[in-house]
Amino acid sequence: MSRKIRILIAKPGLDGHDRGAKYIARALRDSGYEIIYTGIRQSPQQIASAAIQEDVDFVGLSLLSGAHNELFPETVKLIREYGGSEIIIFGGGVIPQEDIPFLKGKGVEAVFTPGTPMQPIIDFIEKNKERIAR
Amino acid sequence: MTDLVQQVLQKNTRAIARAISHVENEHPSKEDLINSLYPHTGHALVWGLTGPPGSGKSSLVNHMIRIEREKGKSVAVIAIDPSSPFSGGAVLGDRIRMQKHATDEKVFIRSMASRGHLGGVAGATADVIKVLDAAGFDLIIIETIGVGQTEIDVVQMADLVLLVLVPGLGDQIQALKAGVMEIGDVFIVNKSDKPEADRVRAEVEYALHMGRAEINPIFMTSALENTGLNELSCGIEEYYKKIDKNGYLEKKRKERITSEIRNLISAKIRQEIEQALNIREEIEKWAESVYKNKCSPYKLVNEKLQAFFEANK
Lengths: 134, 313
Fold this sequence. Notes:
The complex is a heterodimer.
Chain A: E1 6-10, H1 19-30, E2 34-37, H2 44-53, E3 58-63, H3 68-81, E4 88-93, H4 100-105, E5 110-112, H5 118-128
Chain B: H1 2-9, H2 13-24, H3 30-37, E1 45-50, H4 57-70, E2 75-81, E3 90-92, E4 107-113, H5 125-134, E5 139-143, H6 153-157, E6 160-165, H7 172-176, E7 186-189, H8 197-209, E8 218-220, H9 229-245, H10 248-276, H11 279-293, H12 297-311
Parallel strand pairs in B: 1-5, 1-6, 2-4, 2-5, 6-7, 7-8
Helix pairs in contact in B: 1-2, 2-5
């Protein structure tokens, strides 16, 4: 088998600040993963749909507009509803520390806030990739 | 696994996506999967879309999906981007231009990385087409990486190849280079809102006319301004009718199968021999002896193969 880890990087809602998402996409590419990037202004439905069609292992949600407490849980819910029960979901962007426990309770397993170096993110992927049964 | 097959045939999105992954990752069940799905193939039309990077292929596909959906067809897209030869990773960004269709359940978009395969598509693309065909999609569009002369694989995989050209990428000499122009069945001059677009058209006509009376269809489009797309769609329909009627379509599909059988035989024989001769462990020794004794590689290989065939009579 010649399996590659596939990661969807998505920006839900009306936030157009995509530099962070693109940076992450490039850095993860350089670590050997296949990154599907769906661009800005995606609805939770579009993101969940893409996650299933692309059969990804991870979804990384990026948001800098402050709407994460609504949009992240909604996106997680739809990914599960559409059949992505095993997909591991993480997030990043402008997210206050005090919101992180709430997001984790809603299925976002890790949140990487501004200033996080790439290594913890790569470690997170490497540590969890074996959980996805193939 | 029969569950998976059943669900693919029932057009379950998650099952289709999973089947594609099995094929792409060379899952042990891959051949059984294709064997079960194959009897259900043969209905889908397959278009290949190729052209230089930045020529607007993805944006054109976005329009094509819309137009074919308006006609009531279900559409699948395989969008291929290159893998890094250094890290093995890839950024697959073609779907950005098509995300408007992400929630239409009669549209399925899958991004594939080339994973080292040369030829403009991914190694598993041919089998992925079979999965999508069996799942019942009316139209499958393959969007190649798009680097020009080496995009030969799509010619075999598709019923027709749409070659996209744009103004500002060179002169007539480019058009004359072998392998580029010969690939296309239908030619599209995109970004026709730009100056020089007519010049590109003229150059394409010139290159195609050489020694021929009738030339392939050429369409002027602008994905940005949404012009020329309906004419393109009609033109493709006309072209299909023509090649269906004159037998060219059937010939093309049989050639595709012939080529595939040949490639499979080569690949499997190669695997068998690599294992039987234990090439992985022996190869350094052999290289050493060719280097030291100056015995020709032909001599060495012929000896080894001879021994193998003798032993397996």
